[in-house]
Amino acid sequence: MHSVTVKCEFLGGLDVIFGGVRKSECTVAAQEPPTVKDLMYHITETLLVDKKDFDVFVEDGTIRPGILVLINDTDWELEGEDEYVLQDGDVIAFTSTLHGG
Asked: Which positions bear 1-thioglycine (predicted)?
């Protein structure tokens, strides 16, 4: 079993679905070295306040379009998206660009 500890940030209003938490330290464990996809499921299982908000964060098995994901201040598209293998101390920022009105 592999595990890593990363820092997560929820910005652009995403903190609302995570109980007002803007920053959290997450320890992710998986059979293989944990990826951003493993982190996504860890977050939705442990930090999501109301499970009906799952679709606000996840769509089609990955982070929903309209949520920018930065891995150590780099766009996750340059890092392999949800297949990026997490390293201890990584900072993963999720920023919603979807604002209601």
From this structure: 101
